[in-house]
Amino acid sequence: MANVSGTVNVAGLPRNGVSVFLYPSASFGSPPSQGTARPATGLVATVTSGTTHGGAGAYRFTGIANGVYYAAAEFSGNIFWDTHDIGGANPLGWYDAVLNGVPADGVTDAETSITALIATVVAAVGTAGFGTIYFPKGTYALDLTTEINVPPNISFVCQRGARFVKASNTSAAVLFAFVGADTATTTTLSANGAVGDATVSVTSATGLAVGDYVRISDTTFHLAGSLGRNEELNQIVSISGTTVTLRMPLINAYATASTARLTKTNPYRGEVIGGEYVIPVGGNGGGIRFELAMDNVVEDVVCRGADVSPSLEIKRCRGTRLLRGGAFDGQTQGTGGRGYGFSITESSYDVTVDGFHGANLRENVAGNFSRHITVMNCTFEDCFNSGFNTHHAGCEDVLITGNRVTRGGYGIVVGGST
Q1: Which residue has the higher pLDDT, 399 or 88?
Q2: Cα–Cα distance measured from residue 357 to residue 381, given in angstroms and rounded to the nearest whole number
Q3: What is the distance between the alpha carbons of residues 191 and 255, in angstroms, rounded to a whole number?
Q4: Looking at the predicted structure, is the pLDDT value of residue 236 above 80?
Q5: Is residue 314 a contact partner of residue 288, using CB atoms and an 8 Å limit?
Q6: How far apart are CA 83 and CA 92, in angstroms?
């Protein structure tokens, strides 16, 4: 048996007299973040923070068995969570970054250890399972020149106060790229596919199975410069011979003359919850990028200081939900293509941005043939060009509602064939 101890800090100050509740990890479906309500069952113990536990704001639980625990501190109507891994356990596919050797001191480079931990989790859960890496509060220094790639089945959950800071260098790399991947199973379409078709005919269905995710594409680009590619992500619900029925009707037309094909793929389908992703003043790059992601959720992510790459890029995705969070202080805003907030691009489809806050940026955009986009309940302040811009032709079926734009350039810009 062991002890669990910590300190309740609010606005940087230790707080006495705060109720602290301890729960085992089994009480949660995923690690809790700030504001997560306490579960109805599983409470191990309750204490009140104070000097009796060893210092101002301190709390202490005694006689606790090995395992992962979460401590909830309730203060002024808010709930704050801390994680405690007793005995170094990593149950339920959750891996605490610090307890697995990732430095969070803001000085030691964390790139190699994060990459190694990702590989460890993938090896543990397999390609068919899902794993979560939990980043406790702290500063993770990243002296990287290429982005850290996160596989399709790995989620990030960050405690409030977890910051990822890129070293000042000229690399345009984002900090993390959450990217899906095609498999070797691919087949051509044997007949043209029309918008609204629920089935496609393929040359061979060998290697395909019900439930597989697929990417349908041809060699057509809707915009100049190889932009606005003709492709979409979908899922197989049935197969009869060489006829494949899809979960959702086609949103594009595909021509056999343009080498239309169906490729089995593994889209990124994890979650990224919390975390602050920082490019320092004078540095290049952006925060995070999602590519070939489907039905994924991004919550309470904050990006600061993006320059060459967007703060948060959603590229070739379908069904992404960007909830709350924000982007701030984009650099070199007066130079084309720099200092962006969120960027929805390259034929992304059915993307929702809800409650996002963007300030001191060039602008936030959707473009390159992205469609069925919802931008709602957002606040845009002091943006150099505009708060939100439907960038480039072909950006269609965009719902813009309930947003607030103050100062800066234009408010909302609707262009192209939106």
Answers
A1: 399
A2: 8
A3: 7
A4: yes
A5: no
A6: 14
